[in-house]
Amino acid sequence: MIEIAPGLSLNEDELDISFIRASGPGGQNVNKVSSAVQMRFDARKSPSLSNDVSIRLQKIAGSKLTSDGVIVITANRHRTQEMNRKDAIERLVEMIAKAAVAPIKRRATKPTKAAKERRLDAKSRRAGVKSMRGKPNSGD
Q1: The overall pTM is greater than 0.90
Q2: Can you give the CATH number for the domain in which 70 is found?
């Protein structure tokens, strides 16, 4: 079990991890060893996530989300499989933790009467300043 937040954990059986060849650091080993990790997680069918968290996670995933609702994370920052595996899991946990926080609903508010009056006073003062900038009338 992978602990994400209090009351929210993920079963490791839900993760489909495969190892692929990676570009980048590794020297002569890079063409022989499959050290990069490609992790797949089905966000739509996961029993660990509630429907709201799943929907927010799919929005956060963006381009990592396939049309089937599977999140694909590729990790190849490190030279070893284990480090890349940890990196991929950490990135998924971070995304799920972000999705687990429900956004705060905005409450509509109205400006006070005094605030409306201050705004109108400032507008009229500004209009007066701007009217004085014009060319003098020839009728005077």
Answers
A1: no
A2: 3.30.160.20
